[in-house]
Amino acid sequence: MNWMKVNLRSLSWQTLLFGAAAGAWAAFLAEGAMVLAERSESDWASTYLPILVLGLVFGALFAPIEEWVNHYRSRIFKTALAGGALAAVAGTAGFGLAVYVTRLQLPSEGFVFHPIPLPVRWVWFALCLGLIAGGAGMGSGLGLGDLRKAVRRGLRGTLAGAVAAFPLAAASSYTGGSAWTIVLGCTIWGGLLGWLIFWLDQRTASRWLRLVLGSGEDRFYPLRKRRITLGKEERNDIPLLEGDEIYPRHCEIKWIHDHYEIIDDEQGGIVLVNFRQIQEHPLKAGDLVKIGSVLLQYGEGSRS
User: Fold this and answer.
1) Which of 177, 203, 229 corresponds to the end of one domain?
2) Among residues 203, 224, 251, which one ends one of the domains?
3) pLDDT of res. 72
4) Which of 110, 191, 230, 288 has most Cβ atoms within 10 angstroms of its Cβ?
């Protein structure tokens, strides 16, 4: 069975579930904000507050999905904080742009884009939700101090969020934008969004490590950075939390010219490649890497 099928089967349902839960809860709070905003005489509150709340809550819940799935507890707070802040700012800015361009007035109609023509409504709706998703994705990378990951997940989050938003836009348009429609729609949107970002992240990896022996067998770690650290602590790019005889930073993998090399930088313990101790070793597809009690296999090539 190829690596992609194993990985999707083992983790995609979890991202679907977490994303749906995040979308549902964010929608409930956004609708609550709309009810409060309707009691206010402030145009700003009635127009922007629901989107601001939706972005803040959904971003804070969605950004740490990867950390929740992989049980990286210390990373959850940083990714949630950064993801929520960026999602709120991006979503509010996108909604503000829509209001400015279309001169939209929404004193009491929730998220229904009226009286703008239907195709335009859907496009703006998808743009706003795409920006929320992009902000959450970018924040998850920035929270971990990984700029490359932030840019990649931001772009993919925007794309996936916009695509997943079309069913929600259609449902809102045809049902009059009732509160329950929004909640159900955001639940579906969050689940689809979580799965799409997960799928894009995994599907585009051309090099990876697969956990062969250890807790969480068949977990995959896509390799994209030029320098990747492995060790017991969560701050590593590949944390091996449940292995024995693993040092806080055990070793690292570096991109050298056109291939990856695994390097024992003498800050950790012994590294074995194909059950032979190494100091530096160029990795080839199929190589087995033993770090403490954990056994990983390096793979590359076809992603299908």
Assistant:
1) 203
2) 203
3) 78
4) 230
The verdict on 157 and 223 lying in the same domain is no
- 3-class state of residue 9 by DSSP: helix
The identity of residue 131, as a single letter, is L
Are 184 and 252 in the same domain?
A: no
| Pair of tokens at residue 28 | 């409930």
- Cα gap 15→222, rounded to integer Å: 17
Taking 60 as the threshold, does the pLDDT of residue 170 lie above it?
yes
Same domain, 190 and 75: yes
- My answer on whether 192 and 295 are in the same domain is no
Residue type, 244: D
**Cβ distance 276 to 262 under 8 Å?**
no
Q: How far, in Å, CA of 107 to CA of 224, rounded?
A: 46
pLDDT 10s digits, 51-73: 888 889 988 988 888 788 777 78
Domain limits for position 233: 207-300
3-state DSSP assignment of residue 218: coil
Span 265-287, average pLDDT: 86
Quote the pLDDT of residue 162.
86
Whether residue 21 is found in the same domain as residue 60: yes
- Structure tokens of 110? 């929730």
57-115 tens-digit pLDDT: 988 988 888 788 777 787 888 899 999 999 999 988 888 777 766 655 454 555 444 45
Do 184 and 39 belong to one domain?
yes
Q: Do the Cβ atoms of 240 and 35 come closer than 8 Å?
A: no
Give residue-wise pLDDT tens across range 244-263: 888 888 989 999 988 999 99
- pTM beyond 0.90: no
| Residue 22 · residue 28 · CB < 8 Å | no
Same domain, 219 and 149: no
Pair 182, 274 in one domain? no
3-state SS, residue 72: coil
